[in-house]
Every structure is written in C-alpha cells, then in structure tokens.
Amino acid sequence: xxxxxxxxxxxxxxxxxxxxxxxxxxxxxxxxxxxxxxxxxxxxxxxxxxxxxxxxxxxxxxxx
Length: 64
Hints:
By secondary structure, the protein is mainly α. It has helices at residues 6-20, 31-38, 41-48. The longest helix is centred in the N-terminal third of the chain and has 15 residues, at 6-20.
C-alpha cells in the first residue's frame, strides 16, 4: 500500500527507523507513533519507499 501524501510517507519513514532501532520510539509523535505500533516492518518499508515527487503535501479528505 503506497503512501497517499508526503506527510504520510515521512511518518512511515520515521516509524520504520524506530522499528529498526535507529531512532527511539519515545521520539515518535502522532501518526508515526501509531504506525509503528500497528504496522509490520514490510508494510512500513513499502509505504516509506513511495516516491514523493508526484504526491500532494497532504492527502485530500474523502467525500461521503
């Protein structure tokens, strides 16, 4: 599942580095903290590896 925005991609990268032990889990905030708890390393790697060039800064809200 690729990232839908630059913010989501960056949060996944931060969560992935915490899972790998390169960053402390206490330094995570918001979305990156919940991603680290709920997603596997392979899911985070796929989301963090998304190219940012074509992504919007923030994801558009879904309409009902």
